[in-house]
Amino acid sequence: DQQVKQNSPSLSVQEGRISILNCDYTNSMFDYFLWYKKYPAEGPTFLISISSIKDKNEDGRFTVFLNKSAKHLSLHIVPSQPGDSAVYFCAASAGANNLFFGTGTRLTVIP
Amino acid sequence: GAVVSQHPSWVICKSGTSVKIECRSLDFQATTMFWYRQFPKQSLMLMATSNEGSKATYEQGVEKDKFLINHASLTLSTLTVTSAHPEDSSFYICSARGVAGGVDTQYFGPGTRLTVL
């Protein structure tokens, strides 16, 4: 049972435009959400996180939005750069428990 | 920033041999470490969760006698793939949860590519 879902396996965006990556979850006990970026043959790199008490967290070009009623979160990257091309995983946890990962979205930023 | 290291980064071994992969948290203490496996073009699959000083908790379908996990200290966890077979060939990634730079999150190692001939 996939508790965290990323329904778009891939996304292509022009350089300079906004990239929006979406993630849905089913477990209402999740209270901490993270986004990771992953290149092939490397471990995921932590990007940004948000706790359930917030609905937005911003760090430079990256902003994560959380809609608890819809059990949905999104990652906005603006402006998108070619170096942002990678696979992005969203993850969620309940308390200090293990993270549940989505299946990833491959972002391609076209120069 | 927080760093989690893995050693070796890649290993090739013969079928039937055992391989040990080390995972270290370099600038924070990790009471909990996780081991993941990633198949090509798939998401990360949690294999087991290890807490320092206690036995690891394995996910359903993961053979605990085949994938031995030892969490000897707050900064070191090891995964030993025993009697490796070609189907064990995969990308293994460890992760450590802790607070570094004021952020409580889960940091990942760079991964270990295991190829069993």
Q: Could you walk me through the main structural features you see in this protein, from its secondary elements to its overall organization?
A:
The complex is a heterodimer of chains A (111) and B (117). With 111 residues, chain A is an all-beta fold. In chain A, 0% of the residues lie in helices and 54% in strands. Chain A has strands spanning 4-5, 10-14, 19-25, 32-38, 45-51, 56-59, 62-67, 72-77, 86-93, 100-101, 105-110. In chain A, the strands form two sheets. In chain A, strands 2, 4, 5, 9, 10 and 11 form a six-stranded mixed β-sheet that branches. Chain A has a five-stranded antiparallel β-sheet with strand order 1-3-8-7-6, with no helix packed on it. The relative contact order of chain B is 0.34. The mean pLDDT of chain B is 88. In chain B, a hairpin with a 2-residue loop joins β9 and β10 (103-108). In chain B, strands 2, 4, 5, 6, 9, 10 and 11 form a seven-stranded mixed β-sheet that branches. A four-stranded antiparallel β-sheet of chain B has the order 1-3-8-7, with no helix packed on it. Chain B is globular. Chain B has 117 residues and is mainly beta. Classes of the chains: A mainly beta (111), B mainly beta (117). Chains A and B meet through β5 of A and β5, β9 and β10 of B.
Comma- or semicolon-separated keywords:
heterodimer; A: 111 residues; mainly beta; 6-stranded mixed beta sheet; 5-stranded antiparallel beta sheet; 54% strand; globular; B: 117 residues; 4-stranded antiparallel beta sheet; 57% strand
Number of strands of chain B: 11
Q: With helices defined by DSSP (H or I, 4 residues minimum), what is the helix count of chain A?
A: 0
**Tertiary shape of chain A:** globular
How far is it from the N-terminal to the C-terminal residue of chain A, by CA?
A: 38 Å
Helix content of chain B: under 10%
- Mean pLDDT of chain B, to the nearest integer, reads 88
- Overall helicity of chain A: under 10%
Strand content of chain A: over 45%
Structure classification of chain A? mainly beta
Would you report the number of β strands of chain A?
Answer: 11
What's the main sheet of chain A like?
A: 6 strands, mixed
Q: Count the DSSP helices of chain B.
A: 0
Instruction: Please state roughly what percent of the residues of chain B sit in beta strands, choosing from under 5%, 5-15%, 15-25%, 25-35%, 35-45% or over 45%.
Output: over 45%
| Biggest sheet features of chain B | 7 strands, mixed
Q: Element order, helices and strands of chain B?
A: EEEEEEEEEEE
Q: What structural category characterises the helix and strand content of chain B?
A: mainly beta
